[in-house]
Amino acid sequence: MVGNRRVERIRLAGWSITMGDEVKTTSQGFRAATIYEVAKRAGVSTATVSRVLSGATKGTWKRTARRIDEIRRIAAELGYEPSWKARALARGRTGTICLLHRCESPLLISEFWQGIIAQVYSALEGVKLDVQLLFFPDAAESLQANRRKLMDQRFDGCIVLERIDPDLDAVLRESAMPVVLLNGAEKGWPKVRPDDFGGAVKATEHLISLGHRRLAFLSQPIVGEGHFSFWARMEGVQYALKQAGLEPPTMLQSDPAEVIARMFSPDCESRPTALVVYHTQWAIRCLQALWRRGLRVPQDVSVVTFDDVISARISIPPLTTIDVPGEQMARKATDLLLELMEKPAVAHESDMVLPERLVVRESTAVSPH
Asked: Is 40 helix (H, G, I), strand (E, B) or coil?
């Protein structure tokens, strides 16, 4: 501190500069205009600028309307961007959003969730809100520690990734903050999720169109009720086969090496010609297990999976996938949370279901028989 002025060091065009007043900079390193500069140029108060740029100008007469247009033009020329965080602080908020993930550690975040988390960060950064990522594993001590964080830090809102169990449900309701569930299906919360049933139907219809008649559905062992996507994908496969007049799929929940060894042993009379695998990580393990048994993909067995992540595109062979719209889900969930934060008194229990698409690659081909 120098007197009552804060000294701040900023980097501008490659130079390190010490300034006597606080300076706001853009992500490119250029100095951004402040609301005070807009007000000075327009010859109005900062309160007037704030009202104009927030849209609180209904019922104005023509002369005022022209003045409003001029203020907006000046703000655009100066490159001034209203900050959500500043508005939040003015309303007694923290300007911070909680992103809650049911995961033990950052090191265990899957490739699919890494992409979604990055998109949420990007969307909230665009409206000048801070984001804090909290991990909420099932252990009792972790539950209590994170409960204190949710209560003490007074987040303005929360996006929960994947699911809300009864313990977490109680904590979130106690916090009384706006909450959006992303890729979950629990009742009583506004949510954004993919159409996993429809995606599974598309995957199965693709295999049927290639002449496959015996399919297997593979996933990791499901603990308890499992995630809604497991049941939606399984039911989608069953539905498409039934609609085509075919037998239900073989349902397998075990290690891929063990499953492949059992299904493709010489003693097995009803080998599947195609596998629908719950997610990409499991599908890649299936590719490895098939290769070890001397089976070729897709010449001997076709494989289709979910989540069109990078590993699915670079596997050998590249995997045919159902693309879960993670980026779109993240944007929709963020928009919904911001809407709830602006109108906290409005009850909102929307269930936004986004379509999935089939991406055909080299892991599926015409049935060998």
From this structure: helix
pLDDT band at 82 (very low <50, low <70, confident <90, very high): low
Identity (one letter) of the amino acid at 198?
G
pTM (2 d.p.): 0.72
Q: What percent of the chain has pLDDT over 70?
A: 77
Q: Locate tokens 């159902």: which residue? A: 322
Higher pLDDT, residue 168 or 196: 196
Give CB contacts under 8 A, 24+ apart, made by 305-308: 305/276, 305/277, 305/278, 305/279, 305/280, 306/196, 306/199, 306/203, 306/229, 306/233, 306/277, 306/278, 306/279, 306/280, 306/356, 307/111, 307/112, 307/279, 307/280, 308/359
Domains of the chain in start order, with CATH, are 35-91 (1.10.260), 96-194+327-354 (3.40.50.2300), 196-324 (3.40.50.2300)
